[in-house]
Protein 1
Amino acid sequence: MNGFITAKEAAEKWNVTNRQVQMWCKNKMLDGAVMFGSSWAIPETVEKPTRTKNFKPGRKPKDDANK
């Protein structure tokens, strides 16, 4: 498909693991990524996500105001 790359290609491009790219896709951190069967198709123009401040999926950020 023109205009799309695989998760493996994105991993090599961004110097991260294939699994990390798959998790970004699953968690909707890569805009326009779609799953075809068991593979992800990622738009070539999408940027590598940046890490958010001390946030881990599944956990609520700490609220210092309630201390």
Note: The first strand starts at residue 4 and ends at 6.
Protein 2
Amino acid sequence: MTFDVSKLSDEERRQYKTLEDLFAYSYGGYKSEEELCEGILQTVEDWKKKMGGRGELETCVLPYLEAIRMKNRDSARNLYFFISPLFFYIHVLFELSRSEWRNAISWAGMYCERVTKNLLREFDRCFGTNNFADVSDKKFAVKLGRLRAILESKQFEAANELCNLLEIIYSVRSTRGPHDVPPPEPLRAQISANQCLPAYIAYLEILTLMKNNLSSDFSAFVSFFSKLTEMKISLTFGEEMNKVTVEYLLRNVLYREGFFGGDGKKLSEVQTKIRKVGYNFKDAAVSNILSKLSTGKQAVLTKKGKKRNYVYLERCPPQDIFGASI
């Protein structure tokens, strides 16, 4: 996914330019400190209005602006790490509030791109490598694969968790089962938004392992991100998030996406997938519904194997049940 600045509004282009100026300054580029700080303050104010008046972010940012005025480039870089993903995530939440599900999913994909880009560039700065340039024109899967490899080479904790989360978020934007029958877009958008917070936490943890001094304000920025997520998702979906049943998730999401295709899935594999998309159900509940979906005239799955080691696989193609996507 290529981020097209030309498609942004004038206000959004100004915000994006400010963040790019902050990045350039933090890596040694020239920029008037006062002009940079004014741009950051305006960006924070814009975000505050977009998000309904939440002012915690300004409190987090102000100490960094004082440090930037003192020409502290390390503080500028740390601030960039904290707030650059917010540009994309705030758009995810804004599009959710407008029920523009596809737009929200697309912005979540761009959020993944930015997190990956930030980590690749910072790894290169810290270790004198050239990873970002090597993959900058490649597809996201290639960039993420490179990121996973270099982080695991340093045995960074949270590397696997982060890369798995980014893969989940990004894949939702293009989720199409083998018969092009995606699950309902509101749920896909909700899954994307829910996974952005744990990805943000893992991203900051890895930056800290690269010797960036983020620990003092780690909790403050994560708290802002968390409250923003909770408020916007609650306003958008109300109690619906809590009403998603095991059966709905298995039949209308996993089966619909083709998850049970091929050789099928064991209960443990189903549970792993359910947790990855942000839900948590007991084994007994999941097992009962898998059995229900495998019996009777309305069955969509077939159960094979022995007790406690069953495998569940498609009985019929998803498009036979849901029809083709328009």
Note: DSSP finds 14 helices and three strands in the chain.
Protein 3
Amino acid sequence: MLLTLEKVEALAPDQSSLDAARKLLKAGSWPVVASNGSGLIWGECQGSGATPYRVVVSEGDAGYKCTCPSRKFPCKHSLALMWIRVEGKRAFVDAPVPAWVSDWLGRRRGAGTGEAGDSKEEKAKASIAATTSNIAQVESDPKAEARSAALRERNRLEREESILNGLDDVDVWISDQVDRGLAGFAAQATQACRVIAQRMVDAKVSGLATRLESMPARLFSLPESARPAAALEELGLIHLMAQAYRRQEGLPAALKADVRRAIGWAMTRDALLADESATRVRGAWRVVAAISEVQPDRLRRLETWLWLEGLPEGRPDAPRFAALIDFVPVATGAASGGYSVGDRIEAELVFYPSAMPLRAQILQSLSGAQASEAPLELPEQTLDDAYKSYERALCKQPWLGAWPFSIRNARVRRHETQLFLCDGGEGSNVALPLQPSQFADASPLLALAKLDAVGLWDGYRLNLCWAQTELGRWVNA
């Protein structure tokens, strides 16, 4: 059957889904829409997260799939893609079927979602015409907008006051831990951090709450002898963040943005795109790492790390690495982002304001992601040079977190049950320990005399993400 507006209405689970789908019809929401010319359409829809949602629809039977975590089927993205196709106001580029669409086709069972009315459950009739009138009504109420703006400002001021009170509490808590002595802090850190983290949640200091609640796990990942010094460093950084927040008006704009984000203030995608000073970089990006991690707040943190293939002309200082970060509830079951390691993406990225720009959003996809086996053309850089770049970054942004770097002509060496990344040449004084969890997967690299690598250094351990060797590419499983 061919898609029609009546079919889209019949598929919609409720009126609110159609209302939400209508808001996604503008071209800017869809950097990529394509077709294979045989009844299969797909696209990438830019949502509030860093990674676009991938949507595919089979026109013949109205089968669909979207990578978003929605529990409505079809979701607003699937409905919007069908709607765009039916209206015919946007051309769908003829393109080869990408791997993620082929994978969906291979895993499909049955003919798709079925005809409208197959469901045994009754549902209210959704109407496309109703979405037009509802939106027009909302847009024609400037008084409501003014009231909403005033309410948002009042809420902001109340949160600022709550945050400052919470920071006072965390300073007292840190003093108490130091007075008790940090030699035994790790042993009782789980309970102590949970209590103060809950206080930070109540005070709306969500960034510090997450950092505090995850602190015990970071400490216990280290050798026992290193934990007291690491605890002192962690508490010192939290105190520094609190002090920086109190004095934020005297900080450079980029560092002020870092401080507010670390404390828990979020910058919306719309605000980021409206920031004319935000760094924008257009080029070919390669996915070098895809990390999925469950946080104590029951959100799954999805990190996609990108490497820029070649610097833009006239911009030698453009960021070479970018991190796309999304958060999804653990309950949704989503365990990965939309890209796989090795994918190549032609896109323009916009970076969040920062003293050391790393986190970014995709502003515009110039082409869909394509799997690539091509090697990375990494610049000449020793491990010594890479570590010095980390130290310089730390001076500009002390609570940096994971820092990416690339090195050439390195090698992996072993001491007892610990693997290290070292310079392949002689005379280097730097050897970075790899994550213990990588011991089994990275051990085959011991047999190689040299390799080119990309990794994430957190100040304690290196997460080796990508290694290019004479035998081929190794990636972190």
Note: The chain has 13 helices and 16 strands.
